[in-house]
Design brief:
The structure holds four protein chains of four kinds. By secondary structure, chain B is mainly alpha-helical. Chain B has 16 helices and four strands. Chain D has a two-stranded antiparallel sheet. In chain D, strand 1 and strand 2 form a beta hairpin. Classes of the chains: A alpha/beta, B mainly alpha, C alpha/beta, D mainly alpha. Chain A: Keywords: ATP-binding, Nucleotide-binding, Transport.
């Protein structure tokens, strides 16, 4: 059986600048994979390519053996790849419930959307429960706090029921307790699905990562367990070059 | 005063019933035929405005080319009426053999044979179908082309504006086919009824009002459905919607096509009501005027779009009757004021005014909130 | 929130309907008193006072109002004063139809003077025919029309286009280039010109149309210059004339080697085009400010006294001015303002007008008019260099011209 | 073949006119995202400036008017920016409608001030005549367009003001925290963009009518140039104007003026299929 995500020789060029330079990456089903690296390493760009937002100059991405090259964003979503964004984007004029409901409804035939929503589907109820936003279900998303928005976005991702979840700095700006909840949530999700997380928070990484890939200047610098990666002298050099004391610390 | 308070206490469906009763029963009885005809004209524009309200207010697509679709519907209807008339009046028939009779303007444009494009419009079913199908088809093709390439916002507005300009030039240039700048005029009957007759005009008015009512209810249904929520989501974050697994191009194209269909229908109704369809009605300026009307009424509410079209139509008639020169100033100034001071239009103003009133009645509500609502 | 939107929307809609109802009633009552009239007669004046056509039509309105004032000063018609009801067609054809309806149905005017573009006339025609009301249309036009409820006081094609061609032929111009705005009048005029040319051994080197309001004439000028015609027949309208003459001049074309005969450029347009750019080129009309008749002397003086010494008079203005007098004469003859009686009485009425003798042809409701070719002078006025000698019988369908037989019937 | 050669300078000169009328928009639309429908009326203001200056300067009016019209139209733009548009940043569609209202008012104002009929601006005597099919006044417009583009390029790339302007365009937030007074930059951008419209207006008096509706004849074309060229790209505007000018002239030569307009529109729609953001785009990583 082929790996769920396979990236082969991926390069991305922005106006002459090589944001990704021959990246190979394999993620197996059920993994909780972390992508780390200093700013400009190409983490977000990698996610962008996988989800169709950015077109690669060369190389390809395979989802369970099927090439995603040339597919549009929504088609990739429909194949089971969902993502969140660094700065969470939710629909402020819609209620929390409507946000989640839209995320869950994309597999319905278009015509059935013309009907008024009646009640709350199981998926949506579950997402409300998981994210702890049930009390705010009928408030417009515009009134949510920063942390609540991040939860809503995660909730929308869950409501999509994707095979692969890509999260871009999901815990930035969250409190310690919220981070823990997020970490546990991701761990439980990863039991039957695949999760790829871009994150800077070292403590979070240490607690929840099973596999870590380090990117630097558009290339894969190192790959392995948290301990292996931390022990890698090249990784230390990259980070120490920027920050004196702690190797990989919180912040962006 | 009492009546006003009572009116204010009515709820949504009740209001709709009152307005419907006013429009369908009171207006035809109270207004003399000339004024009723004007009201019918405003209601035709209100149908276009409803479509703009959907596309722009709900979907964020500022379409400055609705005149094109209005025209397609209007010409489809006009062509049918012309052909019916040509075949029923032997005097205006052509002297060139036994072919089908030619409409009057073709005779003086030197066209000798009925163009193939015209022939099928003699069939009322085909003509009526084309009234909606033509605009929908063109909007769908155009929508898929531009929305898939993520042409949006200002670009879309400018493109639709250029489309309107190009369409007018095309119509004017094909004089033998379209009647050129004159357009199509001089219609005598509609489905066997004399158009000059007051009772026909009253019947037409009722048809227009009914069509508007039905379309309004349909549009509301759509706005309140999941699709309507999706449309708002596309308006506010098209790129994000892609990552929810929807293709915004499809969503936008559907709504653009619906608004085009509405404009087409409005154009078809306009023709017998006003008695003319010409390129002057379809260009950039008339298209923009309708968008203005929607903004004045309140673009975020469908009722606002309808209200705006009626109010602006009425204002244009009455002000240009009193002081013609000042109309442009007034229209321009009104527009600047609405855009700067009341971006939600009359409907938004009314809503905040009521809230301010309610706040004064209930001093418990902090004043700052109402201030914020108004701003 | 949603309910509030509903509510306010409904309240305002109700208000609008109420307003419309009020608006409808007040003038109706008022007109009831004045229409059949104790001592006044209402007449409608319907021109574009705003929009692109206002430039031209406002001057015609001024001339018509002047005529009404003069008639009133002289005691009115049938002892009653004329009261003009002025409406704005707003350069928009459906608005013309709408305002015509208002004048007829609500103001109950005895007759209406109005229109300029063919499109506005075509839009109003069904309104007047079906209401059996009268329209006096004061501008030269493309012919092929003869509505029983419209009097045409401007020239039809055989009183302007064909004399223009006769003039060019007399001047020995054999090769013509046709330039026009893309609408009904130029296209019809050019069809007539082509038929005339075929019958008179003239050659048409090119026929070009530009959209109304077009201002880029580089390419067209190039086409004209390359074709090397003896003369250009110009049916461009409005602002396009300015761009065309400016660009033709800068391409080095002079009136001596390639005269451009215009049929839509009158005294008032000359300033905007720039005398420099157009002086020396011929135009074809039935009237110029310089036309030497006693009636014209009076007209020009009165017009300048009323509207300012800098104002010029032109053919459509004079035709509008005439229309009021012709109608008044017909009413006097009929003894009533009743439409059918006025129509019957109008045929054969002949008046000395600024352009010379004008006679109403009872058959087709057009006028007998004298054709005049003029040359634009450096002072911006137009000097007559040729005329048809006597008023030409109007022939809107060109039935009297064998070479045109293929045109009219279709 | 001769026709082809003759049409070339005509096409280029049409392109020069398009470039002049669109250049101001690369500032207001391109740099600031404001769809200024009153741009056409600023062009008109420039033309009337030349008309008014005639009384003082006679036939040299066209030359003297260039800087004056720049200032007049620029000032009008500045007033518009200060009083209204600055409340609308980030709402490009609303500015479109707002400025359309402004354009209506300005048109009527011109009608009341100068009368509805066209007025005449006399061209200097030395602009009469030409070389072959290329009249001197076309040549003048061509040179003027070149000089203006060069000036704009130098301003944007060789002065601190210009660089700040570009910085604000590329990242408003970042520019603001870097200590750039974005409000002031906006004013300057609008002043220059509108001023350039005034310059175009003066040039147009040489070849077209001068009347209250002057602006309406050019506004749609001007926007099409910017759309085809790419938002805020000077090079894009130059290439698009030249391309559209040539297309227009050849299309008109081989068909007619009406059809040429339709063809140009069709080509632009087709072109946007290939390059939806116009010829030259500045890339950005941000989501919407």
């Amino acid at each position: 059986m082929s790996p769920i995500i396979e990236v082969r020789g991926l390069s991305v060029v922005f106006d002459g600048f090589r944001a990704l330079d021959g990246v190979d990456l394999t993620v197996e089903r059920g993994e909780l994979r972390f992508l780390i690296g200093p700013n400009g390493a190409g983490k977000t760009t990698l996610i962008d390519v996988v989800t169709g937002l950015t077109r690669p100059a060369s190389g390809e991405v395979l989802l369970a053996g099927r090439s995603l090259t040339g597919l549009r964003e929504h088609q990739i979503v429909r194949l089971g790849v969902g993502r969140t964004f660094q700065t969470s984007v939710v629909f402020e004029e819609l209620t929390v419930l409507e946000n989640l409901d839209l995320a869950a409804a994309f597999r319905r035939p278009l015509l059935s959307l013309a009907r008024r929503r009646r009640g709350v589907s199981e998926t949506v109820a579950e997402a409300l429960e998981t994210t702890g936003l049930a009390g705010l279900a009928d408030r417009p998303a515009g009134v949510l706090s920063h942390g609540q928005r991040q939860w809503l976005e995660i909730g929308m991702l869950l409501a999509q029921r994707p095979e692969v979840l890509l999260l871009d700095e999901p815990v930035a700006g969250m409190s310690r307790a919220e981070r823990e909840r997020t970490g546990e949530l991701l761990t439980s999700v990863a039991r039957d699905r695949t999760v790829i997380v871009v994150e800077h928070d070292m403590e979070f990484l240490r607690r929840y990562a099973s596999q870590v890939t380090v990117l630097h200047e558009g290339r894969v610098l190192a790959e392995g367990s948290v301990e292996e990666v931390r022990g890698d002298p090249r990784v230390q050099e990259v980070y120490i070059g920027r920050r004196k004391d702690d190797a990989v610390s919180a912040g962006s | 005063m009492n009546a006003v308070t009572n009116l204010a206490r009515l709820r949504g469906p009740g209001i709709f019933a009152v307005v419907a009763a006013l429009a369908l029963v009171v207006a035809p009885l109270a207004l003399e035929p000339f004024r009723l005809g004007l009201l019918a004209k405003y209601l035709c524009f209100a149908i276009v405005a409803l479509g703009i309200g959907l596309a722009w207010g709900q979907g964020g697509m500022l379409t400055l080319g609705q005149g094109v679709f209005f025209g397609l519907g209007g010409y489809a209807m006009g062509m049918h009426l012309k052909l019916v008339e040509a075949s029923s009046l032997p005097s205006s028939g052509s002297s060139s053999g036994g072919g089908p009779a030619l409409p009057d303007f073709m005779v003086w444009s030197g066209v000798e044979e009925l163009p193939a494009l015209w022939a099928p419009f003699a069939d009322p079913v085909f003509a009526l179908a084309m009234v909606v199908a033509g605009p929908v088809l063109i909007a769908t093709v155009l929508g898929l082309l531009v929305f898939r390439q993520r042409v949006r916002g200002a670009y879309f507005a400018i493109l639709t504006q250029a489309l309107a300009a190009a369409f007018v030039i095309l119509l004017v240039g094909q004089q033998g086919l379209t009647g050129g700048t004159n357009g199509l005029t001089n219609f005598f009957e509609l489905f066997g009824r004399d158009l000059a007759d007051d009772s026909t005009q009253r019947g037409l008015y009722i048809v227009v009002a009914l069509v508007l009512g039905v379309l309004y209810l349909g549009a509301r249904q759509l706005v309140n459905s999941r699709f309507g929520r999706l449309l708002v989501a596309v308006r506010d974050g098209e790129d994000r919607v892609r990552f929810l697994g929807y293709d915004p191009a499809v969503v936008k194209t559907i709504v653009f096509a619906i608004s085009a269909g509405m404009a087409g229908l409005a154009g078809a109704l306009f023709v017998p009501v006003v008695g003319i369809i010409s390129p002057a009605l379809l260009g950039v300026v008339p298209s923009l005027e309708l968008v203005v009307a929607v903004a004045v009424g309140g673009r975020f509410a469908l009722a606002g779009a309808v209200l705006g079209a009626v109010v602006m139509g009425y204002a244009k008639t009455s002000f240009s009757e009193q002081f013609a020169d000042g109309w442009l100033y007034l229209q321009g100034a009104l527009f600047i004021l609405v855009m700067t001071l009341a971006p939600k239009g009359l409907v938004g103003l009314a809503a905040s005014a009521r809230e301010a009133l309610a706040a004064r009645r209930r001093p418990a509500v902090p004043a700052s909130r109402t201030v914020k609502e108004i701003a | 929130m949603r309910n509030s939107v509903w509510r306010s929307g409904a309240a305002l809609a109700a208000l609008a309907i109420a307003l419309a109802a009020c608006g409808g009633e007040a003038p109706a009552n008022e007109s009831g008193a004045a229409a059949g009239g104790d001592d006044t007669i209402k007449v409608g004046i319907l021109h574009s006072l705003s929009g692109t056509m206002a430039i031209s039509e406002v001057t015609v309105r001024d001339a018509e109002l002047l005529a009404i004032e003069e008639i009133n000063k002289a005691g009115g018609v049938l002892g009653k004063q004329l009261v003009p009801v002025v409406e704005d067609g707003a350069s928009d054809w459906p608005t013309f139809a709408e305002k015509a309806t208002k004048l007829i149905r609500q103001d109950k005017v005895a007759t209406t003077f109005g229109g300029w573009t063919s499109a506005s006339r075509k839009a109003m025609l069904p309104v007047f025919e079906r209401s059996k009301a009268l329209l006096w249309y004061p501008v030269q036009y493309e012919g092929l029309e003869s509505s029983p409820y419209i009097f045409y006081t401007g020239a039809t094609t055989n009183q302007q286009i064909i004399p223009g061609l006769d003039y060019l032929k007399e001047q020995g111009k054999k090769k013509l280039f046709l330039v026009g705005s893309d609408y009904v009048f130029p296209r019809t005029a050019n069809k007539i010109i082509k038929a005339y040319a075929a019958a008179n051994g003239m050659e048409i080197l090119g026929e070009e149309y530009t959209p109304l309001g077009h201002t880029e004439y580089g390419t067209l000028t190039n086409k004209v210059v390359q074709a090397k015609p003896d003369a250009v027949f110009n049916t461009l309208n409005g602002d396009s004339n300015v761009a065309f003459f400016k660009q033709l001049k800068s391409a080095g074309v002079t009136a001596e080697e390639m005269p451009v005969l215009s049929v839509s450029v009158a005294e008032e347009e000359v300033t905007g085009i720039g005398v420099d750019n157009i002086a020396g080129h011929p135009v074809a009309w039935n009237y110029y400010q310089t036309t030497d008749t006693p009636a014209n002397k009076k007209f020009v003086e009165a017009f300048k006294a009323r509207y300012g010494a800098a104002k010029v008079t032109s053919d459509p203005m004079e035709a509008g001015y005439n229309a009021v007098y012709l109608w008044a004469e017909a009413v006097k003859k009929a003894g009533t303002v009743e439409v059918e009686a006025v129509r019957k009485a109008a045929g054969g009425i002949a008046l000395e007008r600024p352009e010379g003798l004008v006679t109403i042809d009872g058959e087709n409701q057009h006028m007998y008019k004298t054709a005049r070719i003029g040359i634009i002078q450096p002072d911006g006025l137009i000097k007559e260099v040729w005329n048809s000698g006597e008023p030409i019988k109007p022939d809107p369908y060109l039935k009297g011209y064998p070479w045109a037989s293929g045109l009219a019937a279709g | 073949m001769e026709a082809f050669v003759n049409q070339l300078p005509i096409g280029i000169s049409i392109g020069a006119v398009l470039l002049l009328i669109a250049l101001g928009l690369t500032f207001t639309f391109g740099q600031m995202g404001v769809i200024n429908m009153a741009h056409g009326e600023f062009i008109m203001a420039g033309a009337y400036t030349a008309y008014l200056l005639q009384d003082l300067t006679g036939r040299m009016a066209v030359i003297v008017a260039l800087p004056v019209a720049f200032a007049v139209a620029g000032l009008m733009g500045l007033i518009l920016e200060r009083t209204a548009i600055r409340h609308f940043y980030g709402r490009p569609l609303d500015t479109l409608l707002l400025t359309w209202g402004v354009s209506l008012v300005l048109q009527q104002l011109a009608r009341d001030l100068f009368g509805a009929p066209n007025v005449q601006v006399q061209a200097p005597a030395w602009l009469q005549g030409g070389i072959g099919t290329l009249p001197y006044n076309r040549l003048f417009i061509f040179v003027l367009a070149l000089l203006t583009v060069a000036g704009v390029w130098a301003y944007l790339n060789r002065t601190g003001q210009g660089r700040r302007m570009q910085a604000v365009m590329q990242n408003r937030g970042l520019a603001a925290v870097s200590g750039i007074d974005t409000g002031r930059v906006d004013q300057r951008t609008f002043f220059i963009g509108s001023g350039l419209a005034g310059v175009a207006g003066v040039a147009l008096t040489l070849i077209g009518p001068v009347g209250p509706t002057l602006g309406t004849y050019y506004i749609v074309d001007a926007f099409l140039v910017v759309v085809a060229g790419g938002l805020g790209s000077l090079l894009g505007a130059v290439v698009a104007a030249a391309g559209l000018g040539l297309l227009n002239s050849y299309a008109e030569f081989w068909s007619d003026a009406s059809l040429a307009k339709v063809i140009v529109f069709a080509v632009i729609v087709a072109f946007l299929q290939v390059r939806p953001q116009g010829l030259f785009v500045l890339r950005s990583r941000a989501l919407s």
